[in-house]
Amino acid sequence: MQFSQKLALLICGCVLVLGGLCLIQYRLVRNTYRLEQTAYLQQVKQRLADKTQSLSDSLNHQVMSALLNHVQGDLEKNQKPRLDTFQQHINFIADNYRRDIANSLAHDNLLSEMTYGLQYNQIVLYNGQKSDTLLSATAKPLNLTETPDITFFIGDGLQQSGFPLQINNQIKNYRLAVWTKQVIFAPHWQEVMFNRMALTLVGSVLLILAVTVIFFLVFMALLQQKKIADITTDFANNMTHELKTPLSAASVAVKSLRTPEAKLNEDWYNELLNQLDGQHEKIRRIMDSVLTSAIDQPLGMVQLREIRLSSFLKEIEILVDDSGRELRCEVNDDILINTDPDILMVILANLIDNALKYTATGTPLHIYAQTTGRILKLSVEDYGEGIPPAYQHYLFRKFFRVPRPNGEHIRGLGLGLYLCRMQAKQLGGDITYQRNTFGGSTFTITLPYDKNELTTGRG
Hints:
Blueprint (H helix, E strand, L loop, with lengths): L2 H74 L9 H21 L8 E13 L2 E6 L6 E2 L8 E16 L2 E16 L3 H8 L1 H60 L2 H5 L1 H30 L9 E4 H14 L4 E4 L5 E4 L1 H18 L6 E8 L2 E8 L6 H4 L23 H11 L3 E6 L5 E8 L11
Parallel strand pairs: 7-9
Antiparallel strand pairs: 1-2, 1-3, 1-5, 4-5, 6-8, 9-10, 10-12, 11-12
Helix pairs in contact: 1-2, 1-4, 4-6, 7-8, 8-10
C-alpha cells in the first residue's frame, strides 16, 4: 500500500474519531443544558413561592370574589355574564399587589430581572349539565399581575366556586370554574444557563481542540518523516550518481596503469596518473561537502588578505571559458577587499556551476559588484528560467533541489547553496536570491567592505 493511501486511511480514521468525539461532547452539553434548565426552573419556582405566594394568593382571592359578584350580578339581571370590562376592574384591585410583587422580586438576585405573571386563561360557568364559556382558552387571558412576555410556564391550576341563585322563583345551582396559569419572563435566562455551563463548555472545546491539535501534530510528524525519507532516498541516489562517475573513471585509470603499454609509455602513464588524481579530487570534494553539512560548520580557518576583486575574478572567467560560455564581468578596478580568496572562490565556483547546469547553452553570465559604505554586493546573474516562488524559500536548505520537469536529472547533492550561505556567513556576510528582470536568477553575496562609498552599475 502506497504512502498516500495509508495517509488517506489515517485521515479518514481521525475524522471518524473526531466526529464521534464531537457527537459525544454535543450530547453531553445538550444533556447538561437540560439538567441546568430544570434546576434553574426549580430554583425560580422555589424563590417565587417564597417571595410572592402570600401576595398572589391574596390577589387571587380578591379577584375571584370580584369575579363571582360580577357573574352573579349579570345572572340576577337575567343577562349572560360578560367579561369585556372586567380586566379594568382587575387592574383597579391589583394595583397595590403588583407594586408589592415587583418590589419583592427586585430585592432578589435571581429574580431581579424577571417579571411574574398570574393569569386567568379560561373561565366556564356550569348550570347543571349545561356550561357556558365566559373566557375561552384561545382568547386573551385576564392578567392579575403585570402582563409579561412569556418565557416559561411555571404552574397552572383550577379553582371552582359554587353558588345558588334564585331566578324566576327557581333556585339554580351554578358552579364557576377558573383555570389559572403562572408564567415568568426572564430576558437573560440563556446567559445564566451558559454561565452555569461555562466549565462544561470550555472543557468540551478544549478537549476537541486538544485532540485536533494532536491529530495535526501526528500528520505533520508523518509528513516530516516522509519528507526526510524522500530526502534520504534522493541523497542516496544522488550520492551514488555523483560517486559513480569518478569511481568508474578512477577504476578505468587504475586498470590502464596496470597494463604493460602504460608502463612503457611514460607520457600516457603520467596522463593516467593525472586523471586518477583528478577523480580523487572530485571524490574528496564530495566527501568534504557531506562532512561540512553533517557538522553544520565550515572546515578550516578563515585566512583574510587583501585582494583586488577585478583580478580575482579573472580566475572565474577561466572556469566559464572552459565551458564555452560568455562571462561578462562589470567590476570596478579600484575595489580592494579583505577576505579569504579560497572561500570566496568556492562560493563563486558553486554559483557559476549552478548557472551553467540550469541555463541553456549559449546564454551568457554576468558578474557585477556594488559597494555602498561598508557593504560590498557581488552578484551572479544568469538568463535561465529562474526559480519558481514556491521553491525560493527552501533554496538554502540542506539537500533541497528544485524539482525538474519530466524527471530530468542534473548532477548534484543539494548541498551547494547550503554550503555557499554557510561559507558566506563565515566571511561575515550572507547570500540572497531574487529573480531578475530577464526571468533568470540573481544570487547576491553580501560581504563587509570598509572602503569609501563607491557604486559600480551594470551599465
